[in-house]
Fold this sequence. Notes:
Number of helices: 22
Helix content: over 70%
Distance between the termini: 33 Å
Order of helices and strands: HHHHHHHHHHHHHHHHHHHHHH
Low-confidence stretches: none
Mean pLDDT: 85
Amino acid sequence: MSAALGTLLGVLVAGMLLRTPIAFAMLASGIAYLVVKGQDIGLAAEQILNGLYNGYVLLAVPLFVLAANLMNAGSISERLFQLSRVVVGRMRGGLAQVNILVSVIFSGMSGSAIADAAGPGLVSIRQMLTKPEYTPGFAAAVVVAGATIGPIIPPSIPMVIYALVSGTSVGALFLGGIVPGLLMAALLMLGIHVIAKQRNMPKDDPIAVADIPGMVWRGLLPLTLPLVLLTGIYSGAFTPTEAAAVAALHALVLAAGVYRAFSPRTLYAVMLASLRSSAVITMIIASAYLLNYAFAAEGIPNQLAIWVSSLQLGQLQFLLLVNAVFLVLGCFLDVSVMLLVFVPMLIPTAKLLGVDLVHFGVVVVVNMMIGLVTPPFGMLLFVTNALTGIPLKDMVREGWAFIALLVLALLLMTLFPQIVLWLPQTMGYVTR
Protein backbone atom coordinates (compact mmCIF):
# COMPACT_ATOMS: atom_id res chain seq x y z
CA MET A 1 0.00 0.00 0.00
CA SER A 2 1.38 3.41 -0.97
CA ALA A 3 1.74 6.22 1.56
CA ALA A 4 -0.89 8.25 -0.32
CA LEU A 5 -3.46 5.45 -0.21
CA GLY A 6 -2.69 4.81 3.46
CA THR A 7 -3.26 8.49 4.18
CA LEU A 8 -6.56 8.40 2.31
CA LEU A 9 -7.82 5.43 4.31
CA GLY A 10 -6.56 6.91 7.58
CA VAL A 11 -8.31 10.25 7.05
CA LEU A 12 -11.51 8.51 5.92
CA VAL A 13 -11.65 6.21 8.94
CA ALA A 14 -10.79 9.06 11.31
CA GLY A 15 -13.56 11.18 9.86
CA MET A 16 -16.10 8.39 10.27
CA LEU A 17 -15.00 7.73 13.87
CA LEU A 18 -15.36 11.45 14.62
CA ARG A 19 -18.88 11.30 13.14
CA THR A 20 -18.02 13.79 10.42
CA PRO A 21 -20.67 13.88 7.67
CA ILE A 22 -19.61 11.10 5.32
CA ALA A 23 -19.41 13.37 2.25
CA PHE A 24 -16.94 15.68 3.99
CA ALA A 25 -14.89 12.74 5.32
CA MET A 26 -14.64 11.34 1.78
CA LEU A 27 -13.73 14.73 0.30
CA ALA A 28 -11.06 15.37 2.95
CA SER A 29 -9.52 11.93 2.44
CA GLY A 30 -9.41 12.45 -1.32
CA ILE A 31 -7.68 15.83 -0.96
CA ALA A 32 -5.23 14.31 1.55
CA TYR A 33 -4.40 11.67 -1.08
CA LEU A 34 -3.62 14.34 -3.68
CA VAL A 35 -1.44 16.29 -1.23
CA VAL A 36 0.64 13.26 -0.22
CA LYS A 37 0.85 12.17 -3.87
CA GLY A 38 2.21 15.60 -4.78
CA GLN A 39 -0.59 16.30 -7.25
CA ASP A 40 -2.43 19.59 -7.77
CA ILE A 41 -5.45 19.67 -5.43
CA GLY A 42 -7.30 21.43 -8.23
CA LEU A 43 -7.59 17.91 -9.65
CA ALA A 44 -10.27 17.30 -7.01
CA ALA A 45 -12.55 19.91 -8.58
CA GLU A 46 -11.80 18.57 -12.07
CA GLN A 47 -12.73 14.99 -11.17
CA ILE A 48 -15.89 16.05 -9.35
CA LEU A 49 -17.14 18.43 -12.04
CA ASN A 50 -16.37 16.03 -14.90
CA GLY A 51 -18.24 13.25 -13.11
CA LEU A 52 -21.28 15.35 -12.26
CA TYR A 53 -21.57 17.06 -15.65
CA ASN A 54 -21.25 13.77 -17.52
CA GLY A 55 -23.72 11.98 -15.22
CA TYR A 56 -26.98 12.85 -16.99
CA VAL A 57 -28.72 9.95 -15.28
CA LEU A 58 -28.08 11.67 -11.92
CA LEU A 59 -30.86 14.13 -12.70
CA ALA A 60 -33.28 11.34 -11.81
CA VAL A 61 -32.17 11.26 -8.17
CA PRO A 62 -33.46 14.67 -6.92
CA LEU A 63 -36.62 14.28 -9.01
CA PHE A 64 -37.47 10.89 -7.50
CA VAL A 65 -36.74 12.34 -4.04
CA LEU A 66 -39.17 15.18 -4.78
CA ALA A 67 -41.84 12.78 -6.07
CA ALA A 68 -41.63 10.67 -2.90
CA ASN A 69 -41.86 13.70 -0.62
CA LEU A 70 -44.82 15.08 -2.54
CA MET A 71 -46.68 11.78 -2.19
CA ASN A 72 -45.95 11.51 1.53
CA ALA A 73 -47.21 15.04 2.16
CA GLY A 74 -50.22 14.76 -0.12
CA SER A 75 -52.41 12.12 1.63
CA ILE A 76 -51.45 9.49 -0.96
CA SER A 77 -50.00 7.18 1.70
CA GLU A 78 -53.31 7.11 3.60
CA ARG A 79 -55.28 6.38 0.43
CA LEU A 80 -53.01 3.46 -0.47
CA PHE A 81 -53.32 2.10 3.06
CA GLN A 82 -57.13 2.05 2.84
CA LEU A 83 -57.03 0.38 -0.58
CA SER A 84 -54.70 -2.33 0.77
CA ARG A 85 -57.02 -2.92 3.72
CA VAL A 86 -59.71 -3.95 1.27
CA VAL A 87 -57.36 -6.43 -0.44
CA VAL A 88 -55.52 -8.19 2.41
CA GLY A 89 -56.92 -6.77 5.64
CA ARG A 90 -58.95 -9.87 6.46
CA MET A 91 -55.87 -12.10 6.55
CA ARG A 92 -54.46 -13.13 9.92
CA GLY A 93 -52.27 -10.26 11.14
CA GLY A 94 -54.17 -8.10 8.67
CA LEU A 95 -52.70 -4.69 9.45
CA ALA A 96 -49.15 -6.04 9.15
CA GLN A 97 -50.06 -7.70 5.85
CA VAL A 98 -51.54 -4.40 4.69
CA ASN A 99 -48.22 -2.67 5.35
CA ILE A 100 -46.33 -5.06 3.07
CA LEU A 101 -48.84 -4.59 0.25
CA VAL A 102 -48.67 -0.81 0.68
CA SER A 103 -44.87 -1.03 0.47
CA VAL A 104 -45.15 -2.94 -2.82
CA ILE A 105 -47.52 -0.34 -4.27
CA PHE A 106 -45.57 2.66 -2.95
CA SER A 107 -42.31 1.22 -4.25
CA GLY A 108 -43.68 1.65 -7.75
CA MET A 109 -43.82 5.40 -7.12
CA SER A 110 -40.95 6.56 -4.92
CA GLY A 111 -37.80 4.45 -5.32
CA SER A 112 -36.72 5.22 -1.74
CA ALA A 113 -36.79 2.98 1.34
CA ILE A 114 -36.63 6.00 3.67
CA ALA A 115 -39.66 7.58 1.98
CA ASP A 116 -41.59 4.31 2.35
CA ALA A 117 -40.85 4.09 6.09
CA ALA A 118 -41.59 7.77 6.70
CA GLY A 119 -44.85 7.80 4.70
CA PRO A 120 -46.93 4.62 4.44
CA GLY A 121 -44.87 3.02 7.20
CA LEU A 122 -45.83 5.67 9.72
CA VAL A 123 -49.50 5.27 8.81
CA SER A 124 -49.22 1.49 9.28
CA ILE A 125 -47.53 1.78 12.70
CA ARG A 126 -50.23 4.13 13.99
CA GLN A 127 -52.93 1.73 12.88
CA MET A 128 -51.22 -1.36 14.33
CA LEU A 129 -50.68 0.30 17.71
CA THR A 130 -54.44 0.71 18.10
CA LYS A 131 -54.59 -3.08 18.59
CA PRO A 132 -53.04 -4.55 21.76
CA GLU A 133 -51.93 -7.70 19.93
CA TYR A 134 -49.37 -5.69 17.91
CA THR A 135 -46.41 -4.74 20.07
CA PRO A 136 -44.57 -1.51 19.14
CA GLY A 137 -41.41 -3.47 18.32
CA PHE A 138 -43.28 -5.83 15.97
CA ALA A 139 -45.11 -2.98 14.23
CA ALA A 140 -41.86 -1.11 13.61
CA ALA A 141 -40.01 -4.27 12.51
CA VAL A 142 -42.70 -5.00 9.92
CA VAL A 143 -42.47 -1.47 8.58
CA VAL A 144 -38.67 -1.36 8.25
CA ALA A 145 -38.62 -4.82 6.62
CA GLY A 146 -41.34 -3.83 4.15
CA ALA A 147 -39.57 -0.57 3.32
CA THR A 148 -36.62 -2.52 1.87
CA ILE A 149 -38.84 -3.39 -1.09
CA GLY A 150 -39.03 0.31 -2.07
CA PRO A 151 -35.79 0.53 -4.09
CA ILE A 152 -36.13 -2.98 -5.58
CA ILE A 153 -39.42 -2.60 -7.48
CA PRO A 154 -38.96 0.27 -9.98
CA PRO A 155 -38.36 3.13 -9.91
CA SER A 156 -35.24 2.91 -7.76
CA ILE A 157 -32.75 5.57 -6.72
CA PRO A 158 -29.98 3.05 -5.82
CA MET A 159 -30.38 1.34 -9.20
CA VAL A 160 -29.99 4.69 -10.96
CA ILE A 161 -26.72 5.21 -9.08
CA TYR A 162 -25.58 1.66 -9.87
CA ALA A 163 -26.34 2.26 -13.55
CA LEU A 164 -24.15 5.36 -13.39
CA VAL A 165 -21.09 3.50 -12.03
CA SER A 166 -21.52 0.32 -14.07
CA GLY A 167 -22.81 1.56 -17.42
CA THR A 168 -25.75 -0.83 -17.18
CA SER A 169 -29.15 -0.01 -18.71
CA VAL A 170 -31.48 1.63 -16.18
CA GLY A 171 -34.46 0.12 -17.98
CA ALA A 172 -33.05 -3.41 -17.69
CA LEU A 173 -32.27 -2.87 -14.00
CA PHE A 174 -35.77 -1.61 -13.31
CA LEU A 175 -37.28 -4.68 -14.96
CA GLY A 176 -34.84 -6.93 -13.15
CA GLY A 177 -36.07 -5.69 -9.78
CA ILE A 178 -39.76 -6.49 -10.24
CA VAL A 179 -39.75 -10.24 -9.60
CA PRO A 180 -37.20 -10.05 -6.73
CA GLY A 181 -39.28 -7.32 -5.09
CA LEU A 182 -42.42 -9.44 -5.31
CA LEU A 183 -40.47 -12.44 -3.95
CA MET A 184 -39.35 -10.37 -0.94
CA ALA A 185 -42.93 -9.27 -0.33
CA ALA A 186 -44.27 -12.83 -0.57
CA LEU A 187 -41.72 -14.15 1.93
CA LEU A 188 -42.40 -11.30 4.37
CA MET A 189 -46.17 -11.87 4.16
CA LEU A 190 -45.64 -15.60 4.75
CA GLY A 191 -43.50 -14.80 7.80
CA ILE A 192 -46.15 -12.42 9.15
CA HIS A 193 -48.81 -15.11 8.68
CA VAL A 194 -46.78 -17.63 10.70
CA ILE A 195 -46.07 -15.14 13.50
CA ALA A 196 -49.67 -13.93 13.52
CA LYS A 197 -50.96 -17.49 13.98
CA GLN A 198 -48.49 -18.15 16.79
CA ARG A 199 -49.47 -14.96 18.62
CA ASN A 200 -53.15 -15.08 17.71
CA MET A 201 -53.03 -11.67 16.05
CA PRO A 202 -56.37 -10.37 14.81
CA LYS A 203 -57.68 -9.83 11.34
CA ASP A 204 -58.44 -6.25 10.40
CA ASP A 205 -61.83 -4.88 11.42
CA PRO A 206 -64.55 -5.73 8.88
CA ILE A 207 -65.18 -3.05 6.29
CA ALA A 208 -68.78 -2.18 5.48
CA VAL A 209 -69.67 -3.28 1.98
CA ALA A 210 -70.99 0.19 1.21
CA ASP A 211 -67.58 1.72 2.04
CA ILE A 212 -65.51 -0.55 -0.20
CA PRO A 213 -66.17 1.17 -3.58
CA GLY A 214 -65.17 4.55 -2.16
CA MET A 215 -61.99 3.19 -0.56
CA VAL A 216 -61.02 1.46 -3.79
CA TRP A 217 -61.78 4.50 -5.92
CA ARG A 218 -59.74 6.85 -3.70
CA GLY A 219 -56.78 4.46 -3.85
CA LEU A 220 -56.87 3.74 -7.57
CA LEU A 221 -55.83 7.18 -8.82
CA PRO A 222 -52.32 7.03 -7.27
CA LEU A 223 -51.84 3.66 -8.99
CA THR A 224 -51.77 5.48 -12.31
CA LEU A 225 -48.26 6.73 -11.48
CA PRO A 226 -46.35 3.41 -11.78
CA LEU A 227 -48.51 2.59 -14.81
CA VAL A 228 -47.53 5.87 -16.51
CA LEU A 229 -43.86 5.47 -15.58
CA LEU A 230 -43.41 1.90 -16.76
CA THR A 231 -45.50 2.36 -19.90
CA GLY A 232 -43.60 5.51 -20.81
CA ILE A 233 -40.16 4.01 -20.21
CA TYR A 234 -40.68 0.75 -22.06
CA SER A 235 -42.65 2.27 -24.93
CA GLY A 236 -39.81 4.70 -25.53
CA ALA A 237 -41.94 7.77 -24.80
CA PHE A 238 -39.33 8.98 -22.29
CA THR A 239 -36.09 7.82 -20.77
CA PRO A 240 -35.78 6.60 -17.15
CA THR A 241 -34.24 9.97 -16.28
CA GLU A 242 -37.12 11.85 -17.86
CA ALA A 243 -39.48 9.46 -16.04
CA ALA A 244 -38.30 10.98 -12.76
CA ALA A 245 -39.56 14.39 -13.91
CA VAL A 246 -42.85 12.81 -14.96
CA ALA A 247 -43.14 11.18 -11.53
CA ALA A 248 -42.58 14.48 -9.74
CA LEU A 249 -45.10 16.30 -11.93
CA HIS A 250 -47.67 13.48 -11.56
CA ALA A 251 -47.31 13.52 -7.76
CA LEU A 252 -47.64 17.32 -7.68
CA VAL A 253 -50.79 17.29 -9.83
CA LEU A 254 -52.38 14.58 -7.67
CA ALA A 255 -51.47 16.08 -4.30
CA ALA A 256 -51.97 19.77 -5.06
CA GLY A 257 -54.43 19.77 -7.95
CA VAL A 258 -56.68 16.74 -7.40
CA TYR A 259 -56.55 16.16 -3.62
CA ARG A 260 -55.85 19.82 -2.71
CA ALA A 261 -53.68 18.59 0.16
CA PHE A 262 -51.11 21.39 -0.10
CA SER A 263 -50.99 24.93 1.12
CA PRO A 264 -48.21 27.14 -0.29
CA ARG A 265 -46.38 26.74 3.03
CA THR A 266 -46.59 22.93 2.85
CA LEU A 267 -45.36 22.91 -0.74
CA TYR A 268 -42.43 25.15 0.23
CA ALA A 269 -41.54 22.79 3.10
CA VAL A 270 -41.64 19.79 0.74
CA MET A 271 -39.43 21.55 -1.78
CA LEU A 272 -36.96 22.55 0.93
CA ALA A 273 -36.80 19.01 2.38
CA SER A 274 -36.26 17.57 -1.11
CA LEU A 275 -33.51 20.12 -1.79
CA ARG A 276 -31.71 19.19 1.42
CA SER A 277 -31.95 15.43 0.78
CA SER A 278 -30.77 15.86 -2.81
CA ALA A 279 -27.86 18.03 -1.69
CA VAL A 280 -26.70 15.34 0.75
CA ILE A 281 -26.84 12.65 -1.94
CA THR A 282 -25.08 14.88 -4.49
CA MET A 283 -22.28 15.71 -2.04
CA ILE A 284 -21.68 12.01 -1.42
CA ILE A 285 -21.66 11.29 -5.16
CA ALA A 286 -19.27 14.20 -5.82
CA SER A 287 -16.87 13.05 -3.11
CA ALA A 288 -17.04 9.48 -4.40
CA TYR A 289 -15.74 10.61 -7.81
CA LEU A 290 -12.56 11.81 -6.10
CA LEU A 291 -12.12 8.55 -4.17
CA ASN A 292 -12.74 6.52 -7.31
CA TYR A 293 -10.02 8.51 -9.07
CA ALA A 294 -7.61 7.68 -6.23
CA PHE A 295 -8.47 3.98 -6.26
CA ALA A 296 -8.16 3.83 -10.05
CA ALA A 297 -4.80 5.64 -9.92
CA GLU A 298 -3.58 3.05 -7.41
CA GLY A 299 -4.82 0.22 -9.65
CA ILE A 300 -7.06 -1.21 -6.92
CA PRO A 301 -9.87 -2.49 -9.20
CA ASN A 302 -7.40 -4.34 -11.47
CA GLN A 303 -5.45 -5.74 -8.53
CA LEU A 304 -8.71 -6.96 -6.99
CA ALA A 305 -9.71 -8.62 -10.26
CA ILE A 306 -6.33 -10.36 -10.51
CA TRP A 307 -6.53 -11.53 -6.88
CA VAL A 308 -10.06 -12.93 -7.29
CA SER A 309 -8.98 -14.61 -10.54
CA SER A 310 -6.11 -16.27 -8.70
CA LEU A 311 -8.61 -17.78 -6.27
CA GLN A 312 -10.27 -19.50 -9.25
CA LEU A 313 -13.74 -18.60 -8.05
CA GLY A 314 -16.76 -19.37 -10.20
CA GLN A 315 -19.59 -16.92 -10.73
CA LEU A 316 -21.66 -18.32 -7.89
CA GLN A 317 -18.75 -18.37 -5.44
CA PHE A 318 -17.93 -14.77 -6.34
CA LEU A 319 -21.53 -13.65 -5.80
CA LEU A 320 -21.74 -15.46 -2.46
CA LEU A 321 -18.49 -13.77 -1.39
CA VAL A 322 -19.88 -10.38 -2.45
CA ASN A 323 -23.08 -11.09 -0.50
CA ALA A 324 -21.12 -11.90 2.63
CA VAL A 325 -18.98 -8.77 2.32
CA PHE A 326 -21.87 -6.39 1.65
CA LEU A 327 -24.06 -7.87 4.37
CA VAL A 328 -21.30 -7.01 6.83
CA LEU A 329 -20.52 -3.59 5.32
CA GLY A 330 -24.22 -2.77 5.29
CA CYS A 331 -24.25 -2.88 9.08
CA PHE A 332 -21.88 0.09 9.18
CA LEU A 333 -21.86 2.06 5.92
CA ASP A 334 -24.31 4.21 3.96
CA VAL A 335 -25.82 2.76 0.78
CA SER A 336 -24.44 5.58 -1.38
CA VAL A 337 -20.91 5.00 -0.11
CA MET A 338 -21.05 1.28 -0.92
CA LEU A 339 -22.53 1.90 -4.35
CA LEU A 340 -20.12 4.65 -5.31
CA VAL A 341 -16.88 3.45 -3.70
CA PHE A 342 -16.95 -0.34 -3.36
CA VAL A 343 -19.10 -1.44 -6.30
CA PRO A 344 -16.89 0.22 -8.97
CA MET A 345 -13.95 -1.79 -7.61
CA LEU A 346 -15.90 -5.03 -8.11
CA ILE A 347 -17.24 -4.34 -11.61
CA PRO A 348 -14.01 -5.39 -13.44
CA THR A 349 -13.98 -8.67 -11.52
CA ALA A 350 -17.64 -9.33 -12.28
CA LYS A 351 -16.97 -8.72 -15.99
CA LEU A 352 -13.89 -10.94 -15.91
CA LEU A 353 -15.94 -13.82 -14.47
CA GLY A 354 -18.80 -13.25 -16.92
CA VAL A 355 -21.31 -12.24 -14.25
CA ASP A 356 -24.35 -10.52 -15.73
CA LEU A 357 -24.21 -6.89 -14.59
CA VAL A 358 -28.00 -6.60 -14.32
CA HIS A 359 -28.10 -9.66 -12.08
CA PHE A 360 -25.11 -8.35 -10.14
CA GLY A 361 -26.71 -4.93 -9.71
CA VAL A 362 -30.00 -6.21 -8.36
CA VAL A 363 -28.23 -8.61 -5.98
CA VAL A 364 -25.99 -5.79 -4.72
CA VAL A 365 -28.92 -3.41 -4.17
CA VAL A 366 -30.89 -6.08 -2.26
CA ASN A 367 -27.79 -6.60 -0.10
CA MET A 368 -27.71 -2.92 0.70
CA MET A 369 -31.40 -2.78 1.52
CA ILE A 370 -30.88 -5.55 4.08
CA GLY A 371 -28.09 -3.40 5.51
CA LEU A 372 -30.65 -0.67 6.18
CA VAL A 373 -32.41 -2.88 8.74
CA THR A 374 -29.43 -4.55 10.41
CA PRO A 375 -27.89 -3.18 13.61
CA PRO A 376 -25.88 -1.35 14.76
CA PHE A 377 -26.28 1.41 12.15
CA GLY A 378 -29.28 0.39 10.04
CA MET A 379 -30.62 3.69 8.69
CA LEU A 380 -34.25 2.53 8.57
CA LEU A 381 -34.07 1.60 12.25
CA PHE A 382 -32.94 5.11 13.18
CA VAL A 383 -35.49 6.83 10.92
CA THR A 384 -38.36 4.81 12.38
CA ASN A 385 -37.10 5.36 15.91
CA ALA A 386 -36.94 9.13 15.31
CA LEU A 387 -40.47 9.23 13.86
CA THR A 388 -42.18 6.98 16.42
CA GLY A 389 -40.02 6.85 19.54
CA ILE A 390 -40.13 3.02 19.49
CA PRO A 391 -36.89 1.77 21.13
CA LEU A 392 -34.26 0.38 18.79
CA LYS A 393 -33.79 -2.73 20.94
CA ASP A 394 -37.48 -3.64 20.51
CA MET A 395 -37.26 -3.27 16.72
CA VAL A 396 -34.08 -5.33 16.54
CA ARG A 397 -35.48 -8.10 18.74
CA GLU A 398 -38.59 -8.45 16.55
CA GLY A 399 -36.75 -7.87 13.30
CA TRP A 400 -34.40 -10.85 13.13
CA ALA A 401 -37.06 -13.14 11.67
CA PHE A 402 -37.73 -10.66 8.86
CA ILE A 403 -34.00 -10.16 8.22
CA ALA A 404 -33.67 -13.95 7.85
CA LEU A 405 -36.48 -13.96 5.27
CA LEU A 406 -34.85 -11.12 3.32
CA VAL A 407 -31.53 -12.99 3.33
CA LEU A 408 -33.39 -16.07 2.05
CA ALA A 409 -34.79 -14.00 -0.83
CA LEU A 410 -31.27 -12.73 -1.56
CA LEU A 411 -29.91 -16.27 -1.58
CA LEU A 412 -32.63 -17.46 -3.97
CA MET A 413 -32.00 -14.68 -6.47
CA THR A 414 -28.24 -15.35 -6.21
CA LEU A 415 -28.63 -19.08 -6.86
CA PHE A 416 -31.24 -18.64 -9.58
CA PRO A 417 -30.29 -15.65 -11.77
CA GLN A 418 -33.44 -16.01 -13.89
CA ILE A 419 -35.44 -14.62 -10.96
CA VAL A 420 -33.75 -11.34 -11.90
CA LEU A 421 -33.08 -11.81 -15.60
CA TRP A 422 -36.27 -13.43 -16.89
CA LEU A 423 -38.26 -10.22 -17.25
CA PRO A 424 -35.50 -8.04 -18.82
CA GLN A 425 -34.68 -10.79 -21.30
CA THR A 426 -38.35 -11.33 -22.10
CA MET A 427 -38.67 -7.59 -22.83
CA GLY A 428 -35.74 -7.78 -25.24
CA TYR A 429 -32.89 -6.35 -23.17
CA VAL A 430 -29.42 -7.79 -23.70
CA THR A 431 -28.31 -8.17 -20.11
CA ARG A 432 -24.67 -9.22 -20.51
